[in-house]
């Protein structure tokens, strides 16, 4: 961001007021605007959920759903992922990209589920992040979808919108999550990322945000129409 853009945003911050005063109306307006803002990945079980989130790295939810439609017919329990040669699993998830690494991680995770968790997916973030290939973002998504929200998911949309809305000045996802946790009411931690993700896809695009159609324009220091 250049000097002009920085001063523009600083000016915007003065115009819209403190983030503490803005966070509730931001959440309320996004809930009204995107009542359908839920996870786009399709799954039927806790194991499906974990695998689909692991597969979603570096690809689209549409691609993951296309692949898992057949995958989850074939692999239902952790043992099923361990019963086939690694190459077969690689082939089955190939369209999601980086399939060698993903297959290796899924196998390692399934082995740990069987050996240490009785075939179940743990619910605590600290246990989830011990699974091979499961980072904090994946762990947060899995925990939140199972009704045990313990943090705030920070993906590329959440990062971009949090910055544009002046809710954080950080770049690092862990620091952004920390800022958001101090700001967003805990009851909203689960749905807040979905709201930003859908608003990011539909209105506040990375390249050309549609500020003229945005319900947050008067609350956003980066608005181009203020
Ligand atoms: S679309 Fe514009 S006004 Fe809306 S959140 Fe994005 S930058 Fe702000």
Characterize the structure shown.
With 226 residues, the protein is mainly alpha-helical. The protein is 58% helix and 0% strand. It has 12 helices and no strands. The mean pLDDT is 94. Bound molecules: iron/sulfur cluster (SF4). Iron/sulfur cluster binds at residues 164-165, 203-204, 209-211, 214, 216-217, 220, 222-223. Iron/sulfur cluster is lined by residues 164-165, 203-204, 209-211, 214, 216-217, 220, 222-223.
Keywords:
226 residues; mainly alpha; 0% strand; binds iron/sulfur cluster
Number of helices: 12
Query: How confident overall, as mean pLDDT?
Result: 94
Q: Approximately what portion of the residues adopt beta-strand conformation?
A: under 5%
Q: Looking at the chains present, what oligomeric state does this protein adopt? A: single chain
Q: What shape does the CA trace take? A: elongated
Q: Which blocks of ≥5 consecutive residues have pLDDT under 50? A: none
Tell how many strands the DSSP assignment holds. 0
Radius of gyration equals 19 Å
Q: Summarize the helix and strand pattern as letters.
A: HHHHHHHHHHHH
Hetero groups in this structure are: iron/sulfur cluster
For the terminal residues, how far apart are their CA atoms?
19 Å
Secondary-structure-derived class: mainly alpha
Helix share bin:
55-70%
Largest sheet: none
């Amino acid at each position: 961001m250049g000097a002009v853009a920085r001063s523009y945003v600083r000016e915007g911050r003065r115009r819209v007021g403190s983030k503490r005063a803005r966070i509730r109306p931001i959440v309320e307006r996004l809930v009204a605007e995107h009542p359908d803002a839920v996870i786009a990945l399709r799954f039927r079980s806790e194991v499906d959920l974990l695998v689909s989130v692991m597969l979603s790295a570096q690809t689209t939810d549409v691609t993951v759903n296309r692949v898992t439609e057949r995958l989850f017919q074939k692999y239902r329990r952790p043992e099923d992922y361990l019963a086939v040669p690694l190459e077969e699993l690689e082939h089955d998830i190939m369209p999601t990209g980086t399939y060698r690494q993903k297959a290796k991680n899924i196998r390692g995770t399934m082995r740990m589920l069987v050996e240490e968790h009785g075939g179940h997916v743990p619910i605590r973030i600290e246990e989830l992040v011990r699974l091979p290939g499961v980072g904090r973002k994946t762990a947060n998504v899995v925990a939140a979808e199972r009704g045990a929200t313990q943090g705030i998911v920070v993906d590329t949309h959440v990062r971009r919108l949090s910055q544009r809305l002046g809710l954080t000045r950080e770049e690092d996802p862990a620091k952004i999550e920390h800022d958001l946790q101090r700001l967003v009411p805990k009851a909203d931690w689960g749905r807040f990322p979905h709201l930003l993700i859908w608003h990011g896809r539909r209105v506040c695009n990375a390249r050309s945000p549609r500020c003229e159609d945005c319900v947050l324009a008067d609350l956003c220091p980066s608005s181009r129409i203020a």
